[in-house]
Amino acid sequence: MKYVRFQKADKTIKSGIVEGNSIKTVEGNIFGEHKVTDESYNLDDVKLLSPVEPSKLLCIGLNYSDHAKEFGKPIPEEPMLFLKPPTCVIGPEDNIMYPSQTQNLHYEVELVIVIGKEAKNVSEEKAFDYVFGYTVGNDVTARDIQFRDNQWGRAKGFDTFAPLGPWIETEIKDPDSLDVKLLLNGEVKQSSNTSNLFFKCANLISYLSGIMTLLPGDVIMTGTPGGIGPMQVGDKVEAIVDGIGTLKNYIAK
Ligand code: MG
Fold first, then answer.
1. CA distance 212 to 161
2. Peptide bond into 51 cis (omega under 30)
3. Residue 54's closest CA among 10, 12, 18, 86?
4. Contact, 189 vs 225, CB < 8 A?
5. In the chain, what are the domains?
6. pLDDT (tens digit, 9 = 90+) per residue, 166-194?
7. Exposed/middle/buried for 29, CB within 10 Å: 0-12, 13-18, 19+?
8. Reduced DSSP (H G I as helix, E B as strand, rest coil) percent helix, strand, coil of the chain, to 5
9. Ligand 1: centre distance to CA 120 (Å)
10. Taking every pair of C-alpha atoms in the chain, what is the biggest distance, in angstroms?
11. pLDDT exceeds cutoff 90 at 71
12. For residue 113, how many other CB atoms are within 10 A of its CB?
């Protein structure tokens, strides 16, 4: 099923499940007790929001060999973790704001794991029991700042630097075999498959839950493949994961 958060014309925010061109409203907490109601809306009459409001965004760097190569680094021996603050999160069709502090704003398409249950010290074998579903992310990066700073908090942490969506797909059977693609103004810039991830989804959940407690709604951004590059004000950027959907955003000043 495809879980969304959406805003109605009167500005109220609801959760729902997408079926064809309509959304059936969900009552309750999607990570706990909830039920689907008869109240439904046309997908075209509402604004989709980020499908999740994470308490933290755990991001993995250099997890595809072609990206590590273009970055001039080897794949790390252990998953390379950094965090983005929750204030980075925006939804489908929202604007990514080009900060005045950078001259080199980059896209990074990523498969995103959405945690469904509190997870601490989870084994790889049990890891998928803690997954609610998957969505698409764009790990927007101020590349010039990233190369200047030893820590990536600034380069990765500006407001609007974590578009997520369009929904959480709960019916992905194998997250390690999905095509991922990024289009900039309709032109393919990144194209790979999650089978090329060096550290796989189950491994990441286990590894990260050994460091910090993962809470329902937390997201793991699994890394980006090769082909990173700049975006300009006015550009349209589409991050696509097959089996999930297309996350479209615009670059604005
Ligand atoms: Mg990334």
1. 23
2. no
3. 86
4. no
5. 2-49 (2.30.30.370), 57-252 (3.90.850.10)
6. 999 999 999 999 999 999 999 999 999 99
7. exposed
8. 15, 45, 40
9. 24
10. 54
11. no
12. 29
Encoded tokens for 204: 């990441």
- To the nearest 10°, the Cα dihedral for 237, 246, 131, 90? 40
pLDDT tens per residue, range 218-253: 999 999 999 999 999 999 999 999 999 999 999 999
Q: How many whole angstroms from 200 Cα to the centroid of ligand 1?
A: 15
* CA of residue 160 to ligand 1 center, whole Å: 15
CA 162–ligand 1 middle distance (angstroms): 10
Q: Is 157 left (phi over 0), alpha (psi -120 to 50) or beta?
A: alpha
Report percent pLDDT > 90 for the chain: 97
What SS3 state is found at 148?
helix
Phi-psi region of 186 (alpha: psi -120 to 50; beta: other; left: phi over 0): left
pLDDT for res 216: 98
Give CA–CA dist 92/95, Å, rounded. 9
Pairing verdict, β 219-221 and 57-61: parallel
Cβ(203)–Cβ(124) under 8 Å?
yes
CA 63–ligand 1 middle distance (angstroms): 9
